[in-house]
Structure formats: structure tokens, C-alpha cells
Write a structure and sequence with these properties.
Nuclear Transport Factor 2, Chain: A; four-stranded antiparallel β-sheet; 4 strands; globular
């Protein structure tokens, strides 16, 4: 019984650390967002670090997905493979611009996107306050 209790406590500590680590830096927050939105395709989880227009966009997408699912449109069984590299560009006004170069392989089709996230400190955590993306044509 003691072993089970200590495992449960250990698991809670690890989960707490993981939850807090996404808010420790602009990079960790932005990586969390990219992982949840682009890799796990989970806009609800990405919403945890979003605010303002970014949060509004995610909520709208979540609503559209709910409508599609209610009409019988299912989620694909195969998730795309996503690889990325990132660079930080401090803006000088307390906001960090994180630029991600994504390579996405979905069903044999490969395409690239450049995603820019604006990350700002809010109270005791960092939040995604801006988000733009565009596909890069001709890059393989």
C-alpha cells in the first residue's frame, strides 16, 4: 500500500512539474503551443497558454470541429508527422517573437509552414498573444 501511495505522489509531482514548465520561458510556452496544436492536433490543450485573439481563434476552431463531428465527419486515424526548428527574436518590448519552420508530412504530401508566435509575460506565466502562419511554396 505504501508503494502505491508513493507512486501516486511521485506521479503528481511529475505532472505538476510538467504543467509548470510550459510557463517558465517564452520558448517553453511556444513549444507547448506548437506541440499541442500542430503535432497532437489538440487546440483545446493549446488554449491553455493562449489569450486574446489567439484564444478566440482556437475557440472558433474548436466550435467548427464540434459541428463537423456532430455531422458525422470523423477525425483522421493517421496523424501527420511534424518536424520543426525554432528561433527566438526578442522584440525589446517584453515580448518574444518565436519563429518556427515546420515540415509537415501528411498522407505522403509534404509541405512547409512558417509559424510566428508572439509570447508575453502575463502575471506569473507566459502566454501566446499573437499567431501568424503561412505556407512556404516550393520548399521540400
Amino acid at each position: 500500500m505504501k508503494c502505491l501511495a508513493s507512486r501516486a505522489i511521485c506521479a503528481l509531482v511529475v505532472l505538476g512539474w510538467i504543467a509548470c514548465s510550459r510557463d517558465r520561458s517564452p520558448r517553453a510556452t511556444a513549444d507547448f503551443f506548437v506541440d499541442k496544436y500542430y503535432i497532437e492536433i489538440d487546440p483545446t490543450a493549446a488554449l491553455e497558454v493562449a489569450e486574446g485573439d489567439v484564444a478566440d481563434r482556437l475557440k472558433k476552431e474548436r466550435a467548427l470541429v464540434a459541428i463537423a463531428q456532430s455531422q458525422g465527419v470523423g477525425q483522421t486515424q493517421v496523424l501527420p508527422r511534424v518536424f520543426y526548428s525554432a528561433r527566438a527574436e526578442p522584440t525589446g518590448d517584453g515580448v518574444t517573437r518565436m519563429v518556427y519552420d515546420l515540415s509537415i508530412d501528411s498522407g505522403g504530401q509534404r509541405f512547409h509552414k512558417e509559424v510566428t508566435l508572439m509570447v508575453a509575460r502575463r502575471a506569473d506565466a507566459f502566454r501566446i498573444t499573437g499567431w501568424t502562419e503561412h505556407e512556404e511554396a516550393g520548399r521540400h
